[in-house]
Amino acid sequence: ECADASDGPSTSAAPQHTNFSVRVILSEAETSEEVPLERVYVLTVKDRRSFSSVLPLLPPLPERLTHLKRINGERVVVCAYDGDETIPDLEEYGRLSECFVPKEKPLTRRQFDWAKERWPTAFHPNKELESLLSASTDSSLLSSIRDFLPVLRATRPTCVVVRRGQQVASGTQGGGIVAHASLRAVRALAAAHRNAMARAKAAMAAVTRKRSQPGAASPRLLVADCAASAAAAAEGGEERIVVPPLSSLDYLATGADVFLTL
């Protein structure tokens, strides 16, 4: 979401829309600080050493509650409140009561911190989700968006793919579903990859030919883009062979930022 930072008319020296905020679009289950609770029966034992006798008497927990730790201090989950299980006679071991526990497994660290205050539960961090939740304060992401705002401010919907600070592909909205900006960007990304691989293959073939010549010095490989390749190869007396940047060669790896305007 962008807002013009200038109160007066804009100039070429002062870029527009330098103020913006990042709003993450996720489901309520992923952004909520809490998880739903469910009522269960718990037994508070008189002596923790009696757990070895109590646990074999308890029915298995339903599948939806298997994320819960069965024991919490002096308490143990007996069964779901609305379950069909028959509650065994546990009076000699302690006092039976009701308790609200996390109904679902936490999806985020924030939910886990909230849930474990109610009852211990299993949790497996999702790094991708946590990264999205922190996107509004991610300095590298904000910097990347700021660098490509001029492209994203196009009059038509635009999709830009950025790797390591470089724009490796983009697409703008055309007519029809198949001409959607994101689909055009995917095709452009595939074409960039094919071209980069072809240039890399040609560069390595040139290195092989040079090294196979008797008495020839091995050329130095130079990683650069196409625009810089001719100038780089012409500078100095040392022979150089240019290969494409890694950002265009390994686009299938994770880590790309994709910006899409609607």
Q: Main beta sheet, described?
A: 4 strands, antiparallel
| SSE arrangement, N to C | EEHEHEEEHHHHEEHEHEHE
Tell the overall outline: elongated
How is the largest sheet built, in terms of strand order? 4-5-3-6
The total of beta strands comes to 11
Supply the helix-strand structural class: alpha+beta
Count of separate DSSP helical elements: 9
Considering DSSP H and I runs of 4 or more, what fraction of the residues is helical?
Answer: 25-40%
Which value, in Å, is the CA radius of gyration? 30 Å
End-to-end Cα distance, whole Å, is 11 Å
Low-confidence stretches: 1-17, 225-230
Instruction: Give the amount of beta strand, in percent.
Output: 15-25%
Task: Average the pLDDT over all residues and give the rounded result.
Answer: 75
Description of the structure:
The protein has two domains: 100 residues, no CATH class; 124 residues, no CATH class. The chain is built from nine helices and eleven strands. It has a four-stranded antiparallel β-sheet with strand order 4-5-3-6, with no helix packed on it. A three-stranded antiparallel β-sheet has the order 8-7-11, sandwiched between helices. A two-stranded antiparallel ribbon has the order 1-2. The radius of gyration is 30 Å and the shape is elongated. The N terminus is likely disordered.
